Amino acid sequence: xxxxxxxxxxxxxxxxxxxxxxxxxxxxxxxxxxxxxxxxxxxxxxxxxxxxxxxxxxxxxxxxxxxxxxxxxxxxxxxxxxxxxxxxxxxxxxxxxxxxxxxxxxxxxxxxxxxxxxxxxxxxxxxxxxxxxxxxxxxxxxxxxxxxxxxxxxxxxxxxxxxxxxxxxxxxxxxxxxxxxxxxxxxxxxxxxxxxxxxxxxxxxxxxxxxxxxxxxxxxxxxxxxxxxxxxxxxxxxxxxxxxxxxxxxxxxxxxxxxxxxxxxxxxxxxxxxxxxxxxxxxxxxxxxxxxxxxxxxxxxxxxxxxx
Amino acid sequence: xxxxxxxxxxxxxxxxxxxxxxxxxxxxxxxxxxxxxxxxxxxxxxxxxxxxxxxxxxxxxxxxxxxxxxxxxxxxxxxxxxxxxxxxxxxxxxxxxxxxxxxxxxxxxxxxxxxxxxxxxxxxxxxxxxxxxxxxxxxxxxxxxxxxxxxxxxxxxxxxxxxxxxxxxxxxxxxxxxxxxxxxxxxxxxxxxxxxxxxxxxxxxxxxxxxxxxxxxxxxxxxxxxxxxxxxxxxxxxxxxxxx
Lengths: 308, 244
What we know:
The structure holds two protein chains of two kinds.
Chain A: E1 4-13, E2 16-26, E3 31-35, H1 42-49, E4 57-62, H2 71-75, E5 78-81, H3 93-103, H4 111-117, H5 133-145, E6 151-155, H6 163-178, E7 182-187, H7 190-196, E8 199-204, E9 207-212, H8 214-219, E10 227-230, H9 237-244, E11 248-252, E12 255-258, H10 264-276, E13 283-286, H11 291-299
Parallel strand pairs in A: 3-7, 3-8, 5-6, 6-7
Antiparallel strand pairs in A: 1-2, 1-4, 8-9, 10-12, 10-13, 11-12
Helix pairs in contact in A: 5-6
Chain B: H1 3-19, H2 21-40, H3 53-83, H4 86-90, H5 97-125, H6 134-158, H7 161-177, H8 190-196, H9 200-211, H10 220-240
Helix pairs in contact in B: 1-5, 2-3, 2-5, 3-5, 3-6, 3-7, 3-9, 6-7, 6-9, 6-10, 9-10
C-alpha cells in the first residue's frame, strides 16, 4: 500500500482550476518532490492531502485513510510544514517544540535534542518573531517532525533558508525517510530536488508533466545534440562557428551552446580554439541534460504551444 | 481529549497572554486605574442611594475586567492567531478543536481569577467592604464569560486580524459606557438605558452589584440577559467561525 496516493485529483477555486487531474504515489521511506513553478498547484495538492481542501474530483488517501473524514486519526501520524509559519509570534523556540511534543505525548522526539539537531539550540529562548526567516523555517520543520510522523508534508521547506540551514533541512529530511517516513515536499528549486529527492513529480499549470527519479528524467527524451560550455561573455560566436563548423549561440552572457553532436572530436576542436585564444573554460557539458534543462523544457514558455 | 495536550496548551495560552504588554494593560492596568481614579477623584455621578464611589465602582470594574479578558483580549489574540495561520497549523496536530477551546477557557478563567484578586485587594484598600455572596457573584462571572467569549470568538472567527482588533476595542468602549461600570445606568437617557440593560456588560455589573450587596440576591433581569447572551453568542460563533 502506498503511504500517499493521489489519483485524478481536481481542485477548483471558483472558476479557476488549480489542480487538474494530478496522480502520483509516495511510499514509506522515500522522499518525493513536487517540483514546479509558482502557481503550478503544488500547495493546493499538498493541502488536499493535509485535509484543508476538498477534492472536486479524483481520490486522495494518506495511510489508506481519507484526509478529511479520518482527519483526527491521521493527525497522530502526519507531520505538516505549512508554507507560511503558522506559529504564535510571541512563543519561544523551545516552548513551541515542547508544546507540540505534548500534543503527540508519549510518542515524540526529545524537544531539546531536536532543537539541537536543527541548529536552534543557541536561539532556544528567542521568540518566533525574533528568529530569522531561515530559523523560522527550521523550527517549522522541527514542529512537523517532533511527533515522529509516518507521513510528512513539507511545503517549500528550504524557501528563504541560507546554505548552512539547507544542509540541516536536507539532513532532517533524509533522516526522516531513513526512519521509514514517506516525505512529500514541494519546491521550485531544482538544486534541492537533485540533492534530496528519490523521485520527482514535475507539475505545471495543475497537471503532471513528468515523473520519475532524477536520473530517469535527465536521461529521458531525445539524445542531446549539443555541447554547452561556459567562457568569458561576449565571444565572437561567428568566428567560433566557422572554426567548429557548427552554429554557436550565447544563451546567457558567458554561457554558450554549440549545435553539434557531442563527439570527442567536436569537444577537442572547441577546447583547442579556446586554448588558442587564451580563454578560460568555466564549464563544459556534452550530451547530458540536467534536471534544469528538463524542467525548463517542460515548464518554460515554449512548452505551451497554445499559450501566448 | 488528552489532558497532557490541554495542560500544555493552557500553559502556553496563559504565558503568551501575560507576555503581551497591551493585554496586561487592558486586563489589569485600565481597570485598576479607573477604580483608583474615580474612587479618589470625586467627579463621577453616583447611582441614587449610593454614597461611596468605590461601592458603586467595585462591582462595575470587576465586570469590566471580565469583559476585557473574556471578550476583548480573547478576540484580539484569537483573531491574530487566525491571521497568522496558527489555528490552521494547530488543526493538523492531534490537539483538536475541543481541547483548544478547553485550553482557551481555562486560560481566560485563570486570568480572571488573577484580576479578581488584584481588584478586590485594591478596592478593599479604597474602603470597599464587600458583602453578599461570592458564590452568586462567581456564577454571574462564569455565565458572562461564556457570553463574552462567544462575542469575542465571533469577531475573531469572521473578521481579519486588524479589523478584529478595532472592532473589539470599539465594542469595549461602547459596553464600558453603557455597562453601568463607571457611569450609572439610571443617569442615561431612558431609551439608551433600555438598550443598555439588554447588553451583557450592564447585565454583569447589575448581577454583581446585587450579588455583592447585603442581603445578596440573584437579579432576575440581568441573569436572564446573561443567560441569553451565553447561548446566542457561542452558537453564532460556532456557526460562523472560519479557521483560515
